[in-house]
Amino acid sequence: MLTPISKATDFLCISGAAYISQSIVFRDSTTFTHIDGLVGLVGLMLPFLTFRLTKVYQPFRNDSAFSSVMRVLFAWVCAQLVLVAISQPYPNGDLRNRWLLWWTVIAVFALVAGRCAIHALPSILRSWRFAPTRVAIVAPRGAKTDLLGRIASQTRNAFVPEVIFDPSLPSDTFVDQIPVVHKMNAFKQIMRAQNLREIWIINPPFQPISVEHLFETFRNDFVNIRVLPVLEGSPSTENVVGIYRGVPVLNVMATPERGWDILPKEIFDRIFALFVLLAISPVLLAVSVAVKLSSPGPILFRQYRKGMNGDVFSIYKFRTMYQGADKPGTVAQARKGDARVTRVGRFLRSTSLDEFPQFLNVLKGEMSVVGPRPHAVEHDEYYKDLVQHYMFRYRIKPGITGWAQVNGYRGETAEIEKMEARVRFDMHYIQYWTFWMDMKIIALTIVKGFVGKSAY
């Protein structure tokens, strides 16, 4: 994440210093020749060659602020020395040399300030919006006094341990004022009481704690389970499966880490939702009138659904059933010929027009245009223990349409087999998601997704 930012910052520092120094030296624009212009272009490109050779852009987690500053200054001075040597044979050398000197000095201060700002950025972001992640540690035979120090040295204080689970201990204790428990029930209670979402398993990763036990215990809690493969000795990445915020981990069960790749999806969702709502506003108005005239009750139907990481939100749909059709506390899926559905509602459900108000949920950031379809909370409670990986669908934002829907699994899923198939398609989408896959699903939804035989 920081490498593209640092490249852009370095370019702005160097080009800005070139412009300021040019304004200082060449007060009369007529004295700035085309030779000077060519030298300036070379001066903008040359540093990034020396930066590459001196490995200026190595990962920030492996570099201190001081060494980073010294490396970039060395590369910058080398580039300017080469530029001076290139420019010497050409006329008007005195003014050009003064310009290059001013350029070098101003850029030195700018690059130092930029580098310091880049290294301070993670701490600023964590204190402003991304607070240090609170984690629970599973450390079989590992709750020693140096455990937290070893974690901090590897993670650069990006994470805060809140509890340690060590079943090898005879009784509960504390390590640096952090509770250490030896029973799974106590560990589970602290996890839920403090709303912790991260479990780290420290070497040895699988003994005596079984990953299956942790998985079963927290399968419906939206907890990420990861393994820190190396904390002692020299770093090794032979068995590393992923990088989480700069830390090598083995992801046993975790929310997909997409970083900046998700930004185009977030931007597209808001723009597309706003465009759709404006474009079909006459249709929405006509549907609203039809729903209001069809039967007594509100135009919009609101129901609680789970969103990303299990956060509950209120989903919007056009009302398609008679008011009070469902008994309080129960939600039954609509079936073919369901007497609860109004005549207008039957048309809206078969054409998916009842889903269009959900673009309001997309604008609010609660849903995405494409993603696993959210089910009623009551259905989640029913299916979570019957269908494998059912709750994993909520590791990402739910969508108005999805990979399962364009493959024929929309509407009623009365049989367990149908729900299992829907979950398999959702898992495929989560695993292989790309922005262009979203575009494909939207296109397929437009072509064939508005009418379905199983939508009653």
From TrEMBL:
The keyword Transferase is annotated on this UniProt entry: yes
Residue intervals of the Bacterial sugar transferase domain: 265-448
A single GO molecular function term of this UniProt record: phosphotransferase activity, for other substituted phosphate groups
Keywords per UniProt: Membrane, Transferase, Transmembrane, Transmembrane helix
GO cellular component: membrane
Pfam families: Bac_transf, CoA_binding_3
Main location: membrane
Localization per Swiss-Prot or TrEMBL: Membrane
Transmembrane segments: 32-53, 65-87, 99-121, 271-291
Membrane topology: Multi-pass membrane protein
Family under the similarity heading: Belongs to the bacterial sugar transferase family.
Protein name: Colanic acid biosysnthesis UDP-glucose lipid carrier transferase
Organism of origin: Paraburkholderia steynii
